[in-house]
Amino acid sequence: MSGLMLCSDIKVKNPYPVAELGISLHSAEELCYYIYNYVFLLESDFINEHLLYFIGTELALPRLEEKIRKWIADQSDMAQILYMILQDIHYYSESELAVFKTQLEWMRRAAPSERAKKKADYLLQNRRYAAAIQMYDSILQGEGDPGMTREFSGAIQHNKGVAYAGLFESEKALECLEKAYESLEREEILKEIFMLCQLDEGLEVPEAMALAVPAERQYKWKEEFATLCKHLRYSGRAKAVEELWEKDSIRRNAGVKELLTRWKQEYREMAKV
Amino acid sequence: MQDLLLGIDICDDYSQISYFNPQTLEAETLGITEEEASCMVPTVICKEKGTDSWFIGADAYRCALYGKGTMVDKLVKLAGKKGTATIEGVRYTADELLAIFVKQVLAIPGERLGIKNISAVVFTFQKKDSGLMDTVIRATDELGIPRERVHMANHAESYLFYVISQKKELWINQSCLFDLSENGLHYYELNVIRGRKPQIVEVGHEELEEGFSLEILETGAGRKLGDTILTSCGERLLQRKIVTSVFLTGKGFEETEWASGFLRLICNKRRVFAGPGLFAKGAAYMAYDSIQEQTSYPYVCLCEGRLASTVSMQVRHQGRDRQLVLAQAGSDWYEAKASASFILDNTNVLELLVTPVRPGRQNRLSIQLDEFPARPNKTTRVEVIVAFLSESRISVRVIDRGFGEFFPGTGQVVRQDFQI
Predict the structure, then answer these.
(1) Which residues on A lie below 8 Å from B346 (Cβ)?
(2) Do B317 and A6 touch (CB under 8 A)?
(3) What's the sign of the alpha-carbon dihedral B261, B265, B269, B270?
(4) How many domains does chain A have?
């Protein structure tokens, strides 16, 4: 199915805030998009009075609001209500809804630790490193969970290591990646460890791992790292910084100030729990 | 008494005022003063020397005649040429002068009828010119008349509304109009196309080459020549047609004794009406209709200045396919504006359907949106704004609105104009 979907002209006065994403929703279509793509972020209290007000009054969908209230009164579970909301707004096609249903089914069957990992992975993906680390730690605390297999805990250690690397805490990152390798024994983790040690010159590749990888491969990784550094230096953000130095002193100072403010803001976001 | 519903015909030589009388439910013409018998106000303006007073119409002539001021005439033509006039060392643009004229004209009904508020006013011109219409809009803005109460029409539309406001027996077949003025001889023909729902009422317009200066009517020989010219036009235009009614308007038909031969021809098995103010009256009927919740004229009105095709889009709404009409055939092109927002679903092309009212092929207008940023499916919302540059030229603007804060819009605009 392709074509144009007619949108309603309603302009919401009070958008619905989504703290997890740091954004607000302005339309029924955005609400559907949020539910569909971030269902694992939704807590059990997602369907609350605030949301019902947003649907009924701000989006001018009083019938849908009424329907949700009725379903709540009939003690329908949240998954059913979410599915009904998507069906009612008609943003997704039947086939897309079928995929969503499968996802809901997975969520219903998944262990709490699996659901929590999905949420933490989302935070990691969005560079909310500290929050992700906190969530990975809380999953790891539930060691007795039947879903906590060696592979699962290895994957968590790996992702936690990536999050620490994002916060420039190389030692902690190395520690987690080592644990991940112990559990998963995957070569790409060794490569990540190698790259981390290249990045932070204060770190050394653990001896056991250095021995596990042939010198020839390590050499290739080193070359790859050098190429990557070169590439990053002449593209993207590094290039933008370089260009600042070509400007006159007034513009350069203003640019540097703006850049630092932005970096600080980004780091605060990364470090926010 | 309810607020004013006005029709104002602005021509280069004369302007006319009409109002819709809610008691009689008919449009009536209005002279500049109670003493002034004629409803034809010369489109001239005169500034009194040494004061800030402006006069229009016969008063302007009087002021200039006694050397009390400087007069400017042919205001419409001057505005069309973006001309200027220097009065007492001050350079005025034609727009400024026309705006003063329009304001003074608009003050007349209030003074004459004792009603200040205007519910709706329709200005009618020989031909709709966007510059001219903008000048009038600016003048009404300055007078504090809300824009939604001000409408524009051309003579073909005014004639159409005038005729369809008359008893149906007058236009059951064809009806025609001869407009004779200093601006030429214009012929309009109204046809009703049956067998369609809603019924189509169509007006064709032709400026006849045989037009002549009204000055020739000042001599006996000239009057005879004028009559001969008109009679030959009448014979040519009315032959083999079932014309129920003939209307005559314009300064040239203010009196009709000179055109006895022509009258004999057109009065044969037809009802004939002669009189000034027809276009202004038609505009007043339009003003009345503009304030009704539902139109009193359930027809598709086709003529110059009106769209001959319906412009629509195939969209999905609430999970169902439907046709979204952006502009209906028969709408005034100047006022036919529409906007709507869509989400692109697996497509990068916007398609508009142009469906003619008359038999003809449906046309598709496509706009490529490849310039917009690539995003996941269904996360690009576009605002489509449709406006018309003439009855046969459509302008489509598509603005990238993104998808909320997930994918902020760039505001990028793709604009394309099409001949329809």
Answers:
(1) 1-3
(2) yes
(3) negative
(4) 3
* Residue-wise pLDDT tens digits, B258-314: 999 999 999 988 899 998 889 999 999 999 999 998 888 888 889 988 899 999 999
Q: Are residues A105 and A123 located together in one domain of the fold?
A: no
Q: Nearest by CB to B404, which of A2, A9, A25?
A: A25
CA distances in angstroms from B124 to A46, A88, B42, B239, B280, listed in the order given: 59, 49, 15, 30, 7
The whole-number pLDDT of residue A7 equals: 92
Q: What is the pLDDT of residue B1?
A: 53
Interface test with B, best of A4, A64, A122 (most B CBs within 10 A): A4
B343 part of contact set with chain A, CB < 8 Å? yes
Using CB atoms within 10 Å of the CB of residue A200, give its burial: 0 to 12 exposed, 13 to 18 middle, 19+ buried. middle
Asked if the structure places residue A216 within a domain, the reply is: yes
Chain B residues closer than 8 Å to A59 by CB: none
CA-based nearest residue to A101, from A116, A76, A83: A83
What are the sequence ranges of the domains in chain B?
4-154, 158-280, 309-419
Q: Does A30 touch chain B (CB under 8 A)?
A: yes
Tell me: do A83 and A146 sit in the same domain: no
Angle in degrees, CA B59, B77, B148, rounded to 5: 85
Of A7, A23, A24, the CB nearest to B343: A7
Q: Does A24 reach chain B within 8 Å, measured CB to CB? A: yes
Taking CA–CA distances from A88, the nearest residue in chain B reads B318
pLDDT digits (tens, 9 = 90+) for B341-355: 999 999 999 999 999
pLDDT value at position A1? 55
| B388: closest CA of chain A, how far (Å) | 22
Q: For residue B338, what pLDDT is reported?
A: 94
Please give the model's pTM, rounded to 2 decimal places.
0.74
For residue A242, being part of any structural domain is answered with yes
Write down how long chain A is: 273
Residue numbers of the domain that contains A182: 112-233
Q: Please list the residues that pair with B154 across neighbouring strands.
A: B125
Q: Which CATH superfamily is domain B158-280 in?
A: ATPase, nucleotide binding domain (3.30.420.40)
CA distance A176 to B301: 77
CB-nearest partner of B406 from A5, A33, A91: A33
Question: Quick check: is A190 in a domain?
Answer: yes
Q: What is the CATH number of the domain that holds A173?
A: 1.25.40.10
**Domain at B309-419, CATH class:** mainly beta
